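Lab notebook, bench 4. The sequencing result for the construct came back, and we need a structural model before the next group meeting so we can plan mutations. Quick request posted to the team channel:

Model the 3D structure of this chain.
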Amino acid sequence: MKTSSLKTAVALAFPALMLSGCYVIALDQQTLSQLGLMPEAAKPAQPAKPAPAPAAAPAPQAMKTVEPGTIVIPAGPTTLYARLYPANDIASENGMVSGTVTSLMNGKGRFQITYRGELLTGEATRVSGDDRKGVASAWGPNGSFMSCEYQMSTLVRGAGTCSFSDGARYQVHVGN
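Done. Here's the predicted structure in token form:
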């Protein structure tokens, strides 16, 4: 195969490969409202009739224009950043702390944060009966631990509080 043909093949395959990890899903106003992604003022009063079932999804395209009201939901795990801001004097000694939550998009996630030089790892889980609320716990090999309570405002954004084993308390913000 000639070099120019190989470059062309790679250039054509790259966009399809990059789009294969996400689904583009068009949602109606009622669904946006249920997911908490629509401001109160824009929420519909009562839908006249249920939205028709979508037809089979079209094949991914290299460049696709996404219309308003469309949400891109990752097909697999998504990494979200967690920023913890001091809420008491003990936490102020360390300043802001950051970590990551790898959401498995099924109500569970893996949590990682470095606190006072120790890597704490654990999990985040949504509370049964409330898809927005959750708890997160992490532990470090030197005995440090933390626990958090949070509430998600969207699929990828939320806030809450975290407490550490040394008495430090933080306000946590999750999302990109």
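The first strand starts at residue 22 and ends at 26.
Will bring this to the meeting.
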